[in-house]
Amino acid sequence: MGPHLHSSPPGADHQGPVGPRAGGTLPVSFFGLPYEASVQTTYWGNRSELVEVLDLAARGLLHAATTIYPLEDAVAAYDDLAHGRVTGRAVIVPNDTFTR
Question: What number of CA atoms fall less than 13 Å from residue 43's CA on the CB side?
Answer without folding.
Answer: 3
